[in-house]
Amino acid sequence: MRPQRFDQARPFLTLGIVALVWLLVPAVVKRFARASFYELQAPGEVTAAGVRQLQEFWALRTRSADDLIAAGKQTADALAFYELSARQQEQLAAENERLRALLNLPADPGWHYEQARVVRRDFSAWWQQLIIRKGTDYHIPVGAPVVYAGGVAGRVREVGAHTSVVELISSPGLRLAAVVEGDTRPVSYQGGENPAFGASRGTVEYVPLDVITLIGAPRRLLTSGLGGVFPAGLPIGTLTHAEPAPDGLFKTGEVRLDPALSELTEVTVLVPLHPEETAPPVPAP
Known about the structure:
- The chain has helices at 2-24, 27-60, 65-103; strands spanning 111-123, 128-132, 145-148, 151-159, 164-168, 175-180, 186-191, 201-207, 219-223, 235-244, 251-256, 266-272.
- By secondary structure, it is α+β, with helices and mostly antiparallel strands.
- It is globular, with a radius of gyration of 23 Å.
- 24% of the residues are buried.
């Protein structure tokens, strides 16, 4: 009877020994093993992403000529719109520089925009992250902000040789200073605990009591620019409602994030041109 009980307990005993040995291993060895595993896994993920793109390419080759003509017209309309937007952006940038010179304000740190394809999306109770197909080979730094057409996507958490891990704005480990649109007082945003198949949400704290949110009229939440990581004015999400906190001094609320976060195929990394002028990001707890 005893040998049978020992056989049943053997897997748990082995697991306990392995866990004990891992706890005794020096931290340097753990970091090296983790980085080695990440670099070993990255080529397979990049190859799988390339195969998916090749499948999409050949699937598009089966489209009819009418579909291609319609897509070409839509692309031409989009290019014309973006050309106009680019000219307006140049005028606004020049006006911004003129006002900064009049007010004797320090210049904003410059950014280099690095577009990157998404290799994999991880959404679970533990992970809210993307893996992108650029790393130290494109000088991507840890802590660099990542954006997309809808606003803030997240922040670079880890960088490998050819890939990087982006912690999404929906991750509970990401916090940043924000402002409610139309108000200049900073509030604290943090990603929420999101279900695997549910809508992404975040939370906001230290909202002033006089900030009102009405049903059917939510207010946008924007980056404040404080901390030197994210530029000011980037959309984060929509503040759907806010309630007084238990201390009665501020409000806490819920932020609805863009559903497009779970479908991103390409993002843009903002690489600072002068890293020494950018405040280092606070590491996630």
